[in-house]
Amino acid sequence: MGLESGDLAVFGSVIRSSKTGQIAYHLQETGIIGDAVSSLLQSGLSGPLGMASQVAGDAALFRQGQRIQQTVDLIRASQTAGMVMSGATLGVSIVGFAVIANKIERVECQLHDLLSRQDELRAKVGEILDDRMTEDLVRLRTAAQQMEESWTLQNPDAQLDRVANEGHLLGNRFYEKARTTLLEAPGAMETAAPLLEAFSLASNVRVAARIAADEVEAAEGAAAAVTSQFEALIDASNATCPPIILKNADPDLEGLPDKFVSDFTARRDIARKLRLAGEAMEGSQGIASLLLKKGVSGRRYLAEARAEKSAPVLLLNACN
């Protein structure tokens, strides 16, 4: 297909030409990804390498029209796994409620740990992580549950519209909190991580609900708007970033104060999360554009991806 020869390369949730950079294929996660992640979460093995082992063990099956078996090395499998386990998606998010609920629980635990601290960080983030955060995470969990339930309804459009609107509202709230943290509390970088994950989860629910309701054009616009928000968050992070970090992705930290080293590590993790989530949302936008171009039903597209149990990833040809 071009991966082994180097003509094509995986970038986030798309496969691009190594020569031109043009997108050749979009990657779409399937039901088997959700099942695998659920299994790993239940077993306590949630790291990217654990996921990679399972995906690679399945010989990384891809399908384009008909099922094609394509061997992908462990590094590529690890990249895919890292995106999924970090809250990002491959294509449009179709993971079930159990996976999303687990990720929301992880956010809640991180926020609880932050608010339980009795130090300077607690003082900085106390106003940002107000009581509404708890309510908003409950609402996000409910929206995800309703998204899952919509697949059992004969007339799901009204419920999907509510889910999309709720995801939109909650996503904007999490976005504003994350942006405020990055701009106004630069010494509290670790606080931004759970906020970014919550923003990503809410936005994924929003876009998936629009596509499931066959409102593909609205989904395309939503994905484009969220991609711009991720770009704004990257700008906010860079605005308060020390020059040594901006100029050198891997600076020599030996002999520097522990606080600086901790800040660098947190900023590096934040940058990675923003990059992965932004690339994933851009991939969702690309798929919505492709569905519009080809006149394909968004709901049917997601239903087939959910029902796929042999290939963990589908390939969508972006050129034809």
Helix content: 55-70%
Biggest sheet: strands side by side, in what order?
Answer: 1-2-3-6-4-5
Bulk shape: globular
Q: Based on the structure, what is the oligomeric state of the protein chains?
A: single chain
Strand portion: 5-15%
Mean pLDDT: 75
pLDDT < 50 stretches = 45-79
Number of domains: 2
SS content category: alpha+beta
**Rg from C-alpha positions?**
20 Å
Main beta-sheet strand count, sense and barrel state: 6 strands, mixed
- The helix-strand sequence is EEEHHEEHHHHHHHHHHE
N-end to C-end Cα span: 15 Å
How many H/I helical runs?
12
Count every beta strand, where a strand is a DSSP E run of 2 or more residues: 6
Please tell me about this protein's structure.
The chain has 320 residues and is of the alpha+beta class. It folds into two domains: 8-88 and 312-317, no CATH class; 97-298. Helix content is 65%, strand content 9%. A six-stranded mixed β-sheet has the order 1-2-3-6-4-5. The two termini are 15 Å apart.
